[in-house]
Write a sequence for this structure.
């Protein structure tokens, strides 16, 4: 069985996860810290959240032990996207490049899920689906369809505006987050 960690890391890069937003170069300049203190990223409600470490402006999402010894951390930079449902929604850029492979970055959104009793903040992470973008939206926001599985992001500011316009209500909906995770 493939772990959600492996699907997240490799799925978009190899076009196995329908609807990913991708880029062949990093578009978020310097990332921001989304929390002062320990945090975890929850990629799937049925699996344990992933611990992180912070290296300058990049969060390294660490594989869980059950993901396998060969799994590598995923580097993600964040920038604020908008407020929805009283929470900051973060736009993340995950480095999905493999060793010796073509470079690839995938885009995710994240929001605070909860603070645990141990003082760790949990964030849920979702992958917006580009298959919902109309042809006119693709043109308007500088997105390019890449086959039937993904969309290429060419301008991070235009992409952020697309997400705010298309998903503002979704980002405030617990049901959307449950489905998108």
């Amino acid at each position: 069985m493939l772990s959600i960690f492996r699907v997240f890391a490799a799925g978009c890069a190899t076009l196995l996860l329908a609807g990913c937003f991708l880029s062949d170069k990093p578009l978020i300049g310097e990332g921001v810290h989304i929390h002062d203190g320990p945090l975890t990223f929850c990629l799937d409600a049925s699996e344990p959240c992933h611990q992180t470490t912070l290296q300058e402006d990049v969060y390294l999402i660490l594989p869980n032990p059950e993901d396998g010894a060969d799994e590598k951390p995923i580097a993600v930079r964040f920038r604020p996207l908008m407020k929805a449902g009283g929470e900051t929604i973060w736009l993340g850029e995950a480095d999905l490049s493999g060793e010796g492979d073509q470079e690839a970055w995938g885009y995710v959104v994240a929001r605070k899920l909860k603070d645990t009793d141990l003082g760790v903040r949990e964030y849920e992470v979702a992958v917006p689906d580009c298959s919902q973008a109309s042809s006119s939206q693709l043109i308007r926001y500088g997105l390019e369809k890449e086959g039937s599985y993904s969309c290429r992001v060419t301008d991070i500011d235009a992409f952020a505006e697309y997400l705010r316009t298309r998903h503002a209500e979704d980002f405030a909906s617990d049901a959307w987050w449950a489905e998108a995770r």
In short: The mean pLDDT is 86.
